[in-house]
Structure formats: C-alpha cells, structure tokens
Write a structure and sequence with these properties.
This is Lipoprotein. The chain is mostly helical. It is built from 6 helices and no strands.
Length: 107
C-alpha cells in the first residue's frame, strides 16, 4: 500500500492540532462560569467579549485581582466596576459591562 505524501499529512495534522486547542471564547466562557455566571449568560458574554476585545485585553481581564476567588453574583456593581477600572482600559470596562447587561437581559 503506498504511503501518503507529507504534503497531505501536514494539513491533516495541523487541523487535528487545531481541534485540540481551546478557543479564546471557550476559555472566557469557562472562566465566567467558574466565577458564578450562569452558562447561557457566560456563553453570550464570552462571544461578545472575544469579538470586541484583543487577546491582550482578555489576558489583562483574566488577571483581574481576586475575581478568581469570588462568586461575581455576590459582588455589587460598584465593586465590579472598581475592579475593572483598576485595569486602566476604558474599552474593557465598556465591553464587559455592556456584555453583562445585554446578555443578562437576553437570557
């Protein structure tokens, strides 16, 4: 039986490797669920946030102090905004708050 050429195998391997990695949207969704946001709202927010924020901004948001240890449902809007402001990026604040409000209303 003839062996498949490397030209055929390389794209196939690249496609399989691509499936094995987790997308930014899936990571954001998972982190939001871990923070106590209902899965439908988290999915909606993740989609909007990934579409509107750069990977650098998403990484900065991930480093948001103390959110990993808190259930965001127990936080006041003031506390959340205060923590978002600490990132010094108005676009992050705007996108996160709009996504949270829009997705909460839609769900």
């Amino acid at each position: 039986m003839p062996r498949p050429s490397r030209l055929i195998l390389l794209p196939l391997l690249a496609a399989v490797a691509g499936c094995a990695t987790v997308s930014p949207e899936a990571r954001v969704r998972g982190k939001l669920i871990e923070a106590g946001i209902r899965p439908p709202v988290a999915g909606c927010m993740a989609e909007r946030m990934v579409d509107r924020l750069s990977l650098v901004q998403l990484k900065r948001l991930q480093s948001l102090g103390g959110l990993g240890n808190h259930d965001v449902r127990g936080m006041s809007i003031d506390e959340l905004v205060h923590r978002l402001r600490a990132l010094n990026d108005p676009e992050i604040i705007s996108v996160v708050l709009k996504a949270g409000i829009g997705c909460s209303i839609a769900s």
